[in-house]
Amino acid sequence: MTIPASILDALSRADASWRPLLLDGLDAMQTATPGYLAQLADDIYLPTEQRLFAAFALPLDHVRYVLVGEGPYPREDSATGVCFMDGAVGSLWSNEEGGGLSKPVNKATSLRNFMKMLLVADGQLTLADTGGAAMAAISTVARGGGGTHIQTLAEMQQKLTGQGFLLLNASLVFRSHVPPVKDAKAWLPFFETVMAGLAAKAPTRPTMILWGKIAELLKKLPVMKEFPQITAEHPYNLSFIGNPDMHALFQPMCLLQGK
């Protein structure tokens, strides 16, 4: 069965180093679930604008970490094809008096908790006090013009990709009428094939960072034995803010540090 043209066209968003592996992954999906991609091509799904493979813009030989989330945000303006990067978020910080994080960040619960986790790991917040007043004080400093903090989510994405993060979702699509776990299972052959290629071709074996229950499905794949792994609850859980494994991973990276 031929892979639909609209799916193939989306490969243009991926770096050339990934495209043979992505085609192999799509072929594996066709074999495992004939008709799935054809059905998907005729359906309405997120992300839009041919961003299905946008996460693979990072060249394969730059990958040091594969951060796996659950799936795209269930909102068109938020789903970018890149795990955790909410397209509706511009500024990270509120410009309102007494504000902390911006309203779009607070709306994206996972991103809000990720930001707070980074601030706790960096010693700017204490785990006992991550509330409004503490966040407002940090926001005032961040917006002060001294370059102490990054200002936008786009800068955050640049920082992560600069550290070698492939920001990938377990399911590359979201459909409002399909349970996310069903789509995630359909993408498992794709993920296994592509990650096997990454294990074979990467100069250094990347570390897998798995967030949430759907991402944990991937641990059952034989290819995952090829990678070191760090698992955590999904960031929409408040407990993520205090996760010591996440602190140890991200603290040295100084992701919130400005120029």
Describe this protein with a few key phrases.
alpha/beta; 259 residues; Uracil-DNA Glycosylase, subunit E; 4 strands; globular; 2 domains
What does this protein look like?
- The protein is an alpha/beta fold and 259 residues long.
- It has two domains: 5-79 and 158-227, Uracil-DNA glycosylase-like domain (Uracil-DNA Glycosylase, subunit E, 3-Layer(aba) Sandwich), CATH 3.40.470.10; 91-151 and 235-259, no CATH class.
- It is 37% helix and 7% strand.
- It has helices spanning 5-9, 19-32, 36-41, 103-107, 109-121, 132-142, 153-162, 180-186, 188-201, 212-216, 244-250; strands at residues 65-69, 165-169, 207-211, 229-232.
- Helix 10 links the parallel strand 3 (207-211) and strand 4.
- Helix 2 (19-32) runs antiparallel to helix 9 (188-201) and helix 5 packs across helix 11.
- The longest helix has 14 residues, at 19-32.
- The radius of gyration is 19 Å and the shape is globular.
- The model has no long low-confidence stretch (mean pLDDT 95).
Q: What is the total tally of β strands?
A: 4
The biggest sheet, with number of strands, parallel, antiparallel or mixed sense and barrel status, is: 4 strands, parallel
Q: How much strand content do the residues show?
A: 5-15%
What spatial form do the alpha-carbon principal axes imply? globular
Helical percent range?
A: 25-40%
